[in-house]
């Protein structure tokens, strides 16, 4: 049995950089991956979806080009080429990551499924056959999450799609029914609508984006509905069945019963941690009732020397959070720092068009916390850059503290909303108050310049 300084389970967004850096720091390290280097983000998540969303945006832009005086004629979608481009980008990212691992001295990559067989011992079922046992002083669990399946009668008897399988479907669905109206449902829903599918989104809450402020959720609902996407809320699905031609969904929306047929169903109701087959009972690492690994603010589990990073530990499930987990663990263990995950900013961006860039607290949260707050808001139809580029959908909104003048949070539903939000995040991190931003000199005419006008609204 081989002994290492460090074992990392999962070549995801935390695992790969951590493994490389530990090996570079002189630690004998092994990285175990059961499927593909790069994990969800590169292979089934951010990279492929954002590549395909770029194609969907090009279709949309081409169709509205006549508003800018450009006549394109009919727009033809080559779905195979869209997928090929997506596959090329994914392969490029994955192979460059794998090359980086293989070129790192002191780092071994094993393809296989790891399971704890004792506290600091793992048994690996190797992908090319056989088994290997390894032990280490430090073990880092970065096994990510997978699609959650709702408890709906008949779901296990139909050919449903997940965010992974939909990436490789042969043709554009005629009618795509999406269960779940949040990040995955909305990004895929709008994308396939633009590729030519009829799209129906079924959301169990009273609105899509149910965790966001109502004005943000209703603005996006209007935008998507204008694109002819059907959104049904307050949904309880009673049964799904399939015959040779169609899928049939029996549901209640509020008090109304509906029977909807569709050609395809995409399940997008959240993700669950990949912990069930990890053998955690053999090492004593504790999980919560949803199967997430419980960690302290330094990402250590209840067992000394075993850490969990990324989606598997619960909390915000984003690539940048998994990556930040790696930097915290690495700097604490190798550089002797005392970084914590508490109070770190959690920005995110949903890549619908317009994007939703979010940071800090929402108005809803400010109200719930009984804070003294004010809201600044400007519709994109009043933003010069938006008008000039024909990107007038959405709004910018910031929640501020009128006493300290600090920005508490922002929701930017706009073209490039993620970039504009990041400008406000920098201001929040650097304690730049809104009364300064109001008079900051920004280049004209940029979206950022409109932050002057956004905060001017607070005087009115
Ligand atoms: C469709 C989709 C779109 C997304 N878009 C975005 C986005 O735009 N922006 C964003 O920030 N986030 C996005 N996310 C979320 C993001 O992908 C995840 O938060 C991120 O990948 C989590 O990284 P991780 O390192 O925790 O896990 P992962 O990247 O999931 O990596 C875990 C790895 O562990 C491996 N593994 C699991 N169990 C074992 C085992 N027993 N033995 C060996 N290996 C194992 C898995 O095969 C996998 O490779 C998206 C997710 C999806 C599904
Ligand atoms: N741009 C991004 O950053 C991005 C993009 C995609 C995914 N992600 C990550 O992936 C994770 C999973 O995304 P997601 O959208 O699948 O999950 P989610 O938990 O964010 O949203 C699931 C939605 O499904 C609804 N729902 C649950 N059960 C339902 C049912 N039976 N019928 C109808 N609706 C139901 C919920 O009310 C919710 O609105 C997110 O946590 C996110 O962190 C991020």
Describe the protein's architecture and organization:
- With 460 residues, this protein is an alpha/beta fold.
- It has 3 domains: 2-146 and 272-334, FAD/NAD(P)-binding domain (3-Layer(bba) Sandwich), CATH 3.50.50; 155-269, FAD/NAD(P)-binding domain; 354-459, Enolase-like, domain 1, CATH 3.30.390.30.
- It is built from 12 helices and 20 strands.
- A 5-stranded mixed β-barrel has the order 1-2-3-4-5. A 5-stranded antiparallel beta sheet has the order 16-17-20-19-18, with helices on both faces.
- A hairpin with a 4-residue loop joins β10 and β11.
- α1 (15-24) packs parallel to α7 and α3 (46-63) packs across α5 (183-195).
- The model has no long low-confidence stretch (mean pLDDT 97).
- The site of flavin-adenine dinucleotide has 36 residues, from β2, α2, α3, β3 and α7.
- Nicotinamide-adenine-dinucleotide binds next to α5, β10 and β16.
- Residues 4-324 form the FAD/NAD(P)-binding domain.
- It comes from Pedobacter terrae.
